């Protein structure tokens, strides 16, 4: 093929990407970067050159240059010459293998005939550049050109003249390219476009080599405008280059030993590597978290710190077939994992989280212990870096001062506020206080005690730990929204995806997202159609608040339908609702208002035992009549009391996220006392002496545990449910599940529904830490 002269230049830069390596065996650290060019530029062809391919190309196409090519003492000089010759002959784009493409590069090439980028301004202050008087430097790591651009002949003339220069930078590299461009006089179609550093070279050599790029906030800021980023691996002159992102050489830390002192702690690799016992506590019934637990175990298996063990304490017996916990341990293929189950006879879920953590500490063999939660993501260097900082600071305990918080279902990622993140604790076992017997928040008193009794270092390296908000966490959505607002950096949408892609070089981000998808209250869950049903009687004082709370629900209102059945009211409840039907029908998918009077007007308190049978019989009849008159094709039915005074906007989302056919929250009075005594778990057989009018009415707490006794648990099975906020899969109602208006094995109405469901093979569940508030009556 004839080489085109500069005067014959025509057409755009070819959509062809060239890259080179010594052989076809590309180091793993470069393979992800290589794939980025192919993935983000789907209209481009790709050609890979080995050293052997290059030598043959030069011999065949430029035999006169073979003495120069073979005369270079440094192999990188031959690669420099080759890239110029390849672009002169074929055109297209050349990119070094330590370059990552961040977005399609068409915008860089359009309307241009030769493109080169400037190195960061800071490089002009480096010693060699200052010695040569070069205030700005053109870099050959990315080049794009039409075939036969006249600049290449101009550059090759300079290159032959400089072939005896001792420094490769002057002979073939950036300094030669910079000088040649300064002397070049090409115009119009033969011009050279020089791009500013932020488009191709947004980070300096020092940024990469010092580990500054490990800071996600810095990485996101400097790459916002970049089409690509060069990592300055320097495999031709730096030992150990090409092995992935550098870890920081110094870390900001605060050391507390009676009084705090700020420092930048050097983190040279320690020689003494004591055994670290990572301690994981998990529940016997994991409620869909088995997949997440596998990632936590895999995160331990991939740690770079060699002298470690993982102690897993589970409070439940193994399942008879294919136990998910034991399967996850086997899948990790890591020999230093020990599984400890609490002794036989203990009821799963009875022990508090604090008690289980103490059991884990007691089984640890290491000189140090490290908290390792069962649903989060850990950078492979977490143990190594925390142990280095702890040793350098001469401390007994180490904590992260910030960590990452990720909402997989919402494309949100944050760098947390600054505080002691208790879940990141690495501590000398001899200095470790005992955990209090709390169901949650058990690690806060431990850290407070350590602050008083030991030397503690708090380090700032948030990428070591990614806390995941997946919908099944101990704390509520509101709690995490507060952390989002208080975060030191927030990324959403496209920028969240960009930072996650950077983190995915070291973490299984996308596999985790796929597994976590069923757990949270995701956008998919919000697409479920829900019929909200409420029997009402003398409810006018409560209905404004009822509609206000309903309007705050974190659910698409077009996917919500409402149904009311009014009966026996004396305060105009039916008329009040009828007046508001036009507005409600504008907001919600469908609204049904029914009316049926039963003539029931008892005197005295509604909880009096002598009226319970009749009161609940009529309430069951009202529920069943409302259900038959309002249910159409909805996926779920949410039974909601009219006299609730508060519940979180995520109430429905969290009930749906539980993934159960029947589920209730914990209902309390404004002063915090339990209101709903119909949601219970039996502790044994019911006492026949407690049968009143054919239904069990035991004294409060006799033979029953209510949801307040399970605080700290994610989800618990129940024998009875209340109707203050009761979510039922609609198909169960269609298949005959109703509210028995008669005694069904000693239970009636909502409790009877739970027992009837049990007869159908369906368990009702409760969420102890999802609280709603009922009006005081």
UniProtKB/TrEMBL annotation:
Give all residue intervals belonging to the Glycosyltransferase 2-like domain.
291-401
What organism is the protein native to?
Answer: Azospirillum melinis
**PANTHER family per record:** MANNAN POLYMERASE COMPLEXES SUBUNIT MNN9, MANNAN POLYMERASE II
Q: What is the lineage of its organism?
A: Bacteria, Pseudomonadati, Pseudomonadota, Alphaproteobacteria, Rhodospirillales
Q: Name one Pfam family in it.
A: Gly_transf_sug
The name this protein goes by in its record: Glycosyltransferase
Locate the coiled-coil region(s) and give their ranges.
none
Annotated InterPro entries: Glyco_trans_2-like (IPR001173), GlycoTrfase_DXD_sugar-bd_CS (IPR007577), Mannan_Polymerase_Subunit (IPR052086), Nucleotide-diphossugar_trans (IPR029044)
């Amino acid at each position: 093929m004839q080489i085109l002269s500069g005067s014959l230049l025509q057409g755009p830069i070819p959509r062809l990407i060239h890259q080179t390596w010594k052989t076809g065996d590309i180091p793993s650290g470069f393979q992800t970067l290589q794939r980025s060019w192919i993935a983000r530029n789907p209209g481009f062809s790709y050609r890979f050159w080995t050293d052997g391919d290059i030598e043959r190309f030069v011999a065949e196409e430029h035999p006169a240059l073979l003495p120069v090519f073979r005369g270079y003492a440094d192999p990188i000089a031959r690669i420099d010459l080759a890239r110029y010759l390849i672009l002169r002959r074929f055109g297209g784009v050349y990119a070094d293998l330590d370059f990552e493409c961040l977005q399609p590069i068409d915008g860089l090439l359009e309307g241009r005939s030769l493109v080169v980028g400037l190195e960061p301004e800071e490089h002009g202050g480096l010693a060699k550049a200052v010695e040569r008087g070069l205030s700005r430097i053109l870099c050959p790591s990315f080049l794009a050109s039409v075939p036969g651009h006249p600049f290449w002949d101009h550059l090759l003339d300079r290159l032959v003249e400089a072939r005896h220069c001792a420094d490769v930078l002057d002979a073939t590299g950036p300094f030669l390219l910079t000088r040649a461009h300064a002397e070049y006089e090409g115009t119009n179609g033969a011009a050279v476009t020089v791009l500013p550093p932020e488009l191709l070279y947004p980070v300096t050599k020092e940024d990469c080599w010092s580990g500054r790029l490990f800071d996600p906030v810095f990485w996101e800021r400097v790459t916002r405008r970049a089409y690509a980023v060069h990592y300055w691996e320097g495999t031709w002159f730096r030992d150990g280059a090409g092995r992935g992102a550098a870890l920081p050489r110094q870390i900001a830390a605060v050391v507390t030993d009676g009084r705090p002192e700020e420092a930048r702690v050097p983190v040279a690799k320690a020689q003494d590597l004591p055994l670290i016992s990572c301690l994981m506590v998990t529940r016997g019934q994991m409620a869909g978290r088995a997949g997440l637990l596998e990632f936590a175990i895999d995160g331990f298996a991939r740690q770079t710190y060699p002298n470690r063990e993982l102690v897993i304490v589970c409070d439940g017996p193994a399942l008879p077939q294919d136990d998910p916990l034991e399967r996850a341990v086997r899948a990790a293929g890591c020999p230093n994992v020990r599984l400890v189950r609490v002794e036989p006879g203990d009821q799963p879920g009875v022990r508090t989280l604090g008690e289980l953590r103490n059991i884990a500490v007691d089984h640890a063999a290491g000189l140090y212990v490290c908290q390792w939660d069962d649903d989060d993501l850990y950078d492979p260097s977490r143990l190594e870096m925390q142990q280095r900082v702890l040793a350098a600071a001469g401390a007994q305990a180490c904590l992260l001062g910030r960590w990452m918080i990720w909402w997989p279902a919402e494309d949100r990622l944050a760098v947390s506020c600054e505080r002691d993140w208790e879940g990141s604790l690495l501590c000398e076992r001899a200095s470790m206080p005992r955990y209090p017997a709390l169901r949650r928040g058990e690690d806060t008193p431990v850290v407070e005690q350590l602050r008083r009794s030991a030397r503690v270092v708090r380090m700032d390296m948030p990428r070591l730990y990614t806390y995941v908000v997946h919908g099944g966490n101990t704390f509520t959505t509101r709690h995490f929204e507060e952390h989002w607002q208080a975060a030191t950096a927030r990324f959403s949408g496209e920028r969240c995806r960009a930072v996650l892609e950077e983190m995915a070089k070291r973490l299984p981000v996308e596999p985790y997202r796929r597994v976590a998808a069923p757990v949270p209250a995701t956008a998919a869950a919000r697409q479920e159609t829900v019929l909200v049903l409420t029997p009402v009687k003398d409810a006018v004082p409560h209905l404004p608040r009822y509609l206000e709370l309903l309007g705050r629900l974190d659910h698409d209102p077009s996917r919500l339908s409402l149904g009311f059945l009014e009966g026996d009211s004396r305060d105009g409840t039916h008329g009040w609702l009828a007046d508001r039907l036009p507005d409600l029908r504008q907001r919600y998918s469908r609204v049904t208002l029914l009316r049926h009077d039963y003539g029931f007007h008892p005197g005295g308190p509604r909880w009096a035992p002598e009226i319970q049978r009749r009161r609940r019989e009529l309430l069951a009849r009202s529920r069943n009549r409302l259900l038959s008159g309002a249910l159409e094709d909805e996926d779920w039915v949410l039974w909601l009391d009219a006299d609730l005074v508060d519940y979180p906007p995520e109430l429905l989302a969290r009930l749906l996220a539980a993934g159960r056919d029947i589920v209730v929250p914990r209902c309390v009075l404004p002063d915090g006392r339990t209101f709903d005594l119909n949601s219970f778990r039996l502790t044994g057989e019911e006492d026949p002496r407690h049968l009143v009018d054919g239904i069990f009415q035991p004294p409060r707490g006799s033979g029953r545990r209510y949801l307040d006794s399970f605080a700290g648990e994610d989800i618990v099975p129940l024998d009875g449910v209340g109707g203050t906020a009761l979510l039922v899969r609609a198909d169960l109602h269609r298949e005959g599940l109703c509210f028995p208006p008669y005694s069904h094995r000693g239970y009636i109405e909502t409790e009877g529904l739970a027992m009837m469901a049990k007869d159908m093979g369906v368990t009702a569940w409760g969420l102890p830490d999802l609280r709603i508030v009922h009006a005081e009556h």
